[in-house]
UniProtKB/TrEMBL annotation, chain A:
Gene3D superfamilies tied to this protein: P-loop containing nucleotide triphosphate hydrolases
InterPro entries reported in the protein's UniProt record: P-loop_NTPase (IPR027417), Rab_GTPases_membrane_traffic (IPR050209), Small_GTP-bd (IPR005225), Small_GTPase (IPR001806)
Superkingdom of origin organism: Eukaryota
Pfam families: Ras
Species the sequence originates in: Gekko japonicus (Schlegel's Japanese gecko)
Family of the protein in this entry: Belongs to the small GTPase superfamily. Rab family.
Protein name: Ras-related protein Rab-17
Tagged with keyword Nucleotide-binding: yes
NCBIfam families membership: small_GTP
TrEMBL record, chain B:
Domain spans labelled A20-type: 13-47
Protein's organism: Gekko japonicus (Schlegel's Japanese gecko)
SMART domains: VPS9, ZnF_A20
Residues annotated as signal peptide: none
PROSITE patterns (UniProt xref): VPS9 (PS51205), ZF_A20 (PS51036)
Gene from which the chain derives: RABGEF1
Transmembrane segments: none
SUPFAM superfamilies: Glucocorticoid receptor-like (DNA-binding domain), VPS9 domain
Protein name: Rab5 GDP/GTP exchange factor isoform X1
């Protein structure tokens, strides 16, 4: 029985690889980005990623785990590979979670719009991220999930928007349950990541530093954009 | 049916997995069936003995040398010179007793009178070489040879770049050999640079496709790390070993933590689940026996996959990270994998960085790091326990695990059952012992009270009836003089003389 399962895993693994190879333009510009999902427990981090991956892969669901996802996004002639890392959101694991976002390219701060305290927690996550990363080193998106429960809303759109604006991060509201704006969220994320990468690439070419990734002289220019209508 | 037989097979495996010394922890074939602690003890003993022997030999040789030198040169001054070198010798000996035998060579090399020492150094080198050919290292060299052969075979498929890779690897190993005295961080950095350089070259100069680069990198890692393993795994210059022991001790102290306390969504009552849990534990323990960082990562990934299977079987829905991390922590606590910190450090230092930061292996490795960090920080709050309970469990005064006989499931291992019975008996004995002690205390108290009581009573009586010794009455002699009614008495009879 155990063998059967291993086989199944292996075949899905191969499928992913073949998908990557077959994807158009993958040879042109193929980047792998690490995306961490942060937020309190049961705000829908896993569901969000699950919903996103599931839609594109109708029949090849992750056979076992649901906390690590590989997803390729094709954006005009470029394929970007997103590696989505789910994290444990329970309060007691907060102290060890900094290990998760080591080397991350993007972070999704997920909160539940019906629970004020999860929004507060997202703020805490943001301040932790700011300690770890420079401003234009990482793409951060604030995600208000569970829009399908908007009648029980505790966190207003204005409030969240205001917070996102003052902290120069992107903001959106989604519903993993009703599949609202989930794909858009990840596509936007891919776009942002690509842009950031190209910026870095340019920097690497203009300055002759090969290893250093951040130019301290560069003024932090981050465009504000909002997925919300 | 098949499930049952498989299950039995695993049980046999499990008992074989345990430490040969019978300390109850898992053993490892790499350590001749001992658990890490017992192996360390055994190994240390053997090594200490070896070191001791080497020192004794060195000492003898030194003495002979000195005597020969003294007889030919200065018959007088030699004595003091000898005692001087010996005091230095002793000092070094105590300092570096646990170090490698090579220090012997170093010491003699640094000695002042180099001329006469050359022969000695040569003798010592012979001794070392003889020691180096011990069975363990010979086994290693067989494996190394096999890996080298595989590597060459693999490189043949790369044609020209293959030769170049081989050359680069050889150069790198040569360079690493000279860098052995550097700190482990520098060695790690150098290795990482090497990975980076080779990958870049493969990509840019030889135009190898990304998939082939990845494959080549895996093989290169395997080749070089198999060779470097014994020098860079848990090196003596670091605190790794200390940390290993600390983590191991910590996990041992936390033996009482149950899956309920950690909110682990795994029900071990289900036979399939408990099977998978055993597999996961086996995998995580097996990690230590691998030499290549990537193989170690593969063990972690395999363990994680088993954990996910266990969660999914229990919950009937795919697991999220919220479920996974607690379960991994539980598995680590149950398995107490040997040399956990050393392994983590080794992987971090010498794994190909592209594997570690991204990819599924990297994800599970990060989770393991989180689990270890959590175990190190674990307190009452993270287990939803009160401080008092936590302290009591930690000090071993109480155990939350105790089960009632009627709750035993039918397929429970006989040994475990016996253990619970013994535990029960022990606790009963403990109770009786406590009762005896308390009774004895009471008796003691009673005795003290009784003596005190008697003393007090006596005291009271003494106080109540004080013994007064009156001074002797001075007028006692004239007792009659004070007689008030003297005059009422008839006059004393006067002697009458009767003429006769």
């Amino acid at each position: 029985m155990g063998n059967g399962q291993e086989m199944a895993q292996r075949t899905t693994g191969n499928k992913e690889v073949s998908f990557l190879q077959d994807a158009p333009g993958s040879k042109e510009f193929s980047c792998v980005f690490k995306v961490v999902l942060l937020g309190s427990s049961s705000v829908g981090k896993t569901s969000l990623a699950y919903r996103y991956v599931k839609k594109d892969f109708q029949d090849s669901l992750p056979t076992v785990g649901c906390s690590f996802f590989n997803q390729c996004v094709t954006l005009d002639a470029t394929t970007v590979k997103l590696e989505i890392w789910d994290t444990a959101g329970q309060e007691k694991y907060h102290s060890v979670c900094h290990l998760y976002y080591r080397g991350a390219n993007a972070a999704l701060l997920v909160y539940d719009i019906t629970r004020k305290e999860s929004f507060e927690k997202a703020k805490v996550w943001l301040s932790e991220l700011e300690k770890e990363f420079l401003q234009n080193e990482i793409v951060i998106i604030l995600v208000g999930n569970k829009l399908d429960l908007s009648e029980e809303r505790e966190v207003t759109i204005e409030e969240a928007k205001e917070f996102a604006k003052t902290n120069c991060i992107l903001y959106t509201e989604t519903s993993a349950k009703s599949d609202y704006q989930v794909t858009e969220l990840f596509v936007t994320l891919a776009h942002e990541l690509l842009e950031l990468e190209q910026q870095k690439e340019k920097l690497r070419h203009t300055t002759h530093w090969k290893k250093s990734r951040v130019d301290l002289q560069e003024t932090a220019s981050r465009r504000m954009k909002c997925c919300q209508k | 049916m098949s499930l049952k037989s498989e299950r039995r097979g695993i049980h046999v495996d499990q008992s074989e997995l345990l430490c040969k010394k019978g300390c109850g922890y898992y053993g490892n074939p790499g350590w001749q069936g001992f658990c890490s602690k017992c192996w360390r003890e055994e190994y240390q003993k053997a090594r200490q003995k070896q070191i001791q022997e080497d020192w004794e030999l060195a000492e003898r040789l030194q003495r002979e040398e000195e005597e020969a030198y003294a007889s030919t040169q200065h018959p007088q001054g030699a004595q003091s010179a000898q005692s001087l070198t010996f005091s230095k010798f002793e000092e070094k000996k105590t300092n570096e007793k646990s170090r490698k035998v090579t220090t012997v060579k170093k010491f003699f090399g640094a000695s002042s009178r180099a001329g006469s020492k050359k022969v000695l150094a040569g003798k010592l080198r012979e001794v070392q070489e003889a020691k180096a050919a011990s069975p363990i290292s010979r086994q290693v060299s067989i494996e190394t040879d096999r890996v080298s052969k595989d590597f060459c075979e693999f490189l043949k498929t790369y044609h020209k770049p293959g030769q170049e890779i081989y050359k680069q690897c050889k150069l790198f190993l040569e360079a690493m050999h000279h860098k052995r005295d550097l700190s482990i961080e520098e060695q790690s950095e150098y290795t990482q640079d090497f990975y980076q350089n080779v990958a870049d070259k493969l990509h840019a100069r030889w135009k190898v496709s990304p998939e082939k680069v990845e494959m080549a990198m895996d093989q290169i890692e395997k080749y070089i790390m198999t060779r470097l393993y014994k020098y860079v795994f848990c090196p003596e210059t670091t605190e790794d070993e200390k940390k290993d022991l600390a983590v191991q001790k910590r996990i041992r102290a936390l033996h009482w933590v149950t899956s309920q306390m950690l909110c682990v969504p795994v029900d071990e009552e289900i036979p399939e689940v408990s099977d998978v849990v055993v597999k996961a534990i086996t995998d995580i323990i097996e990690m230590d026996s691998k030499r290549v960082p990537r193989d170690k990562l593969a063990c972690i990934t395999s363990c994680s996959k088993h954990i996910f299977t266990a969660i999914r079987t229990t919950k009937n829905e795919p697991a999220s990270a919220d479920d996974f991390l607690p379960t991994l922590i539980y598995i680590v606590l149950k398995g107490n994998p040997p040399r956990l910190q050393s392994n983590i450090q080794y992987i971090t230092r010498f794994c190909n960085p592209s594997r570690l930061m991204t990819g599924e292996d990297g994800y599970y490795f990060t989770n393991l790091c989180c689990a270890v960090a959590f175990i190190e920080k674990l307190d009452a709050q993270s287990l939803n326990l009160s401080e008092e309970d936590f302290d009591r469990y930690m000090s071993g005064q109480a155990s939350p695990k105790k089960q009632e006989p009627e709750n035993w499931s039918a397929d429970m291992c006989v040994g475990v059952r016996q253990m619970y019975r013994n535990l029960d008996l022990l606790s009963q004995l403990n109770e009786r012992q406590e009762r005896i002690v308390s009774e004895a205390k009471k008796l003691e108290r009673d005795l003290i009270d009784w003596t005190d009581g008697v003393a007090k009573e006596v005291q009271e009586i003494v106080e109540k009836y004080p013994l007064e010794i009156k001074p002797p009455n001075p007028a006692l002699a004239a007792i009659d003089s004070e007689n008030v009614e003297n005059d009422k008495l008839p006059p004393p009879l006067q002697p009458q003389v009767y003429a006769g």
